Amino acid sequence: MVLPTSQLYIKTKAFFGNPYILKEVEGTKIALLSLGYHNTNLTGNSKNMNDLEFRRGNEVLNEILHELKEQADIIVLLSHQGTAVDRLIAEEFSEIDMILGGHSHDLISGPERIINTFMVQAMADAAALGEIELKIRDRKLTGVKALHHFLWLSDYEKDPEMGSLIEELRAPHRGPPGGEHSNGNRGDPQAIQK
């Protein structure tokens, strides 16, 4: 599992989890690197983050990309930085071949190309299942095909067993509306309708 490299343990400055993973697919070495949201400590439950420090993505990339370039043919960034920041990352770090982004909840139809980097977005709240196909030639990323499969709530019957499990898992974390455990104005993420 790859975890956001922008999160460090405060005391040791070590990465929280694996900073990246390497996979070899038909002779091509692919690195998967992840960046979390640098303001998570301001938007999440602070009790869950006492031992963590959150850093800006560009700081982390400056430290780690040289290492990845030596080990991988293709670098894929899983980003929770937001669309605007992802575009800046693509402009600044041409070593990154592909950015799979989130946080801004944007729908980008087909991949966007920024200099040498392909970029797609994940949308939000399980509203769509993204599918990408990477076109690789001579161990280089030459193209990307991206599709969104929309998951409209009205197309699916509720699963009572899954609903009970979700409620059981959520119960200890529920707080008063607008309180520390609230998700703000977003409401029920599964209530997205056509």
Number of helices: 4
Uncertain runs are 181-187
State the end-to-end CA separation.
33 Å
Strand content: 25-35%
Q: H/E order of the elements?
A: EEEHEHEHEEEEEH
Q: CATH homologous superfamily of the largest domain - what is it?
A: Metallo-dependent phosphatases
Give the CA-based shape: globular
Radius of gyration: 18 Å
The main pleated sheet reads as: 6 strands, mixed
Reading off the top of the CATH hierarchy, the class of the largest domain is best stated as Alpha Beta
Give descriptors for this structure.
about 30% strand; about 190 residues; globular; alpha/beta; two-stranded antiparallel ribbon; 10 strands; 4 helices
Can you describe what's shown?
The chain is globular. The longest helix has 15 residues, at 57-71. The strands form three sheets. The protein has a six-stranded mixed beta sheet. It has a two-stranded antiparallel sheet with strand order 1-4. Residues 181-187 have low confidence and may be disordered. The chain contains four helices and ten strands; from the N terminus they run E-E-E-H-E-H-E-H-E-E-E-E-E-H. By secondary structure, the chain is α/β, with parallel strands linked by helices. It has two domains: 7-150, Purple Acid Phosphatase, chain A, domain 2 (4-Layer Sandwich), CATH 3.60.21; 153-191, no CATH class. The protein starts with 6 loop residues before the first strand and ends in a 24-residue tail after the last helix. One of its GO terms (cellular component) is outer membrane-bounded periplasmic space. GO terms for molecular function: hydrolase activity. InterPro entries: 5_nucleotidase/apyrase, Metallo-depent_PP-like. Residues 164-194 are annotated as: Disordered. This is Calcineurin-like phosphoesterase domain-containing protein.
